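Figure 2 data, in text form.
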Amino acid sequence: EEEFTVTGISTADKLIVNGPTPTGLCPLVGARASGTNLVKLQFATLTALACTPAAGTYTIVAVRS
């Protein structure tokens, strides 16, 4: 998981994430609000080498009920 600060996010939010084209051995597989203003993006590690997520802009949509 990689943690990012995203102002306005709360743990009650459901997240939808759209990112750049993933690297073949390190795709984005999930996201969660881990605390107030904190988002953790989860990446699968499909190699014995280090997982390096794709560089670029990740768009995060918070759904509140």
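Caption note: The two ends are 25 Å apart (CA to CA).
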